[in-house]
Amino acid sequence: MNNNIPISLLELAFITEGSDAKETFQKTKELAQLADNLEYNRFWLAEHHNMAHVASTATVVLIGYIASQTQNIRVGSGGIMLPNHSPLIIAEQFGTLETLYPNRIDLGLGRAPGTDSLTAQAIREDFYEQSRKFPKNVQAIHDYFSPDNASAKVRAFPAEGANVPVWILGSSMDSAALAAAKGLPYAFAGHFAPKMMFQAFEFYRENFIPSKYLTSPKTMACVNAIGADTDEEAEILSTTLYQMFLGLVRNNRKPMQPPLASLDGLMSEEEKFHVDQMTACTFKGSKEKLEKDLKQFIDYSRIDELMITSPIFDHQDKMKSIKILKEVIDNINKA
Predict the structure, then answer these.
(1) 7-227+283-334 domain in CATH 3.40.50.300?
(2) Has this prediction a pTM greater than 0.85?
(3) pLDDT 10s digits, 193-203
(4) Domain segments of the chain: what residues?
(5) Is residue 3 scored above 80 in pLDDT?
(6) Angstrom distance (rounded) from CA 323 to CA 31
(7) Least CB-packed of 21, 63, 177, 201 within 10 Å?
(8) What DSSP element (H or E) covers 78?
């Protein structure tokens, strides 16, 4: 087991109640700069579409902006939804980012559309065909990055020879199998679909084939994490997260909502069951509680890196939580 676990941050750029995309971009920049100063390892942004309250639709543009506003932290996609795009264009875009920000760019690739089916069709009419070609298109991106592609008739500039690590992202056994077969690092979306996570990690490790990209398995789990001065305060802050997932269950999406004093009476038993399933990998509390719970999770999952996402309504509360979680991981690593 890796005894020195890096901590990274996934930012979903949710627009809060009463805010807008412009303010959200400013907050995202400040969050990235704080994470950079605290020596977080990565800052990833995710591709979503047709969601009025998610500001990361033009993911590559936002990655470039965040990279330009930070110094050392790796910036990347968690992820780019590859069936929405041409592998050539993605290689060109991330080759450009790597040229501008050397050794700081990650390319996380997912198979899902990051949206509803109608919007997926609007983005690309052959989306479903392309989703079946996901393994082939992942390989195409590697080919475009490779110096060996210099003799090909179709080349990606300035991607050729660029050092852009490619991660496979997922929440199923299919993604684990692909990452293992290609010898690529594997990140699991435990922050919204944790059910298969431990099984997927085990399958990935057992079936991993060393490659020129990676000689041994490399795993990262993304989880929800909320830190505060007290357990009680963290519980209150976390009600924003549960309201967000309740909106998904009800198909009633809203801007990120302010916290509530209590969730009592908010959900039916069936709704609570579904919300609890999606949020099973949620860690919240004071430093002491988080240190105990996250250490237990890291030991059991045997991950090589922890990525957190923190859907917290108030920006200053969120910044404070990011500080607390870095201290927690530092303490775990020192133990």
Answers:
(1) no
(2) yes
(3) 999 999 999 99
(4) 7-227+283-334
(5) no
(6) 10
(7) 21
(8) strand 74-81
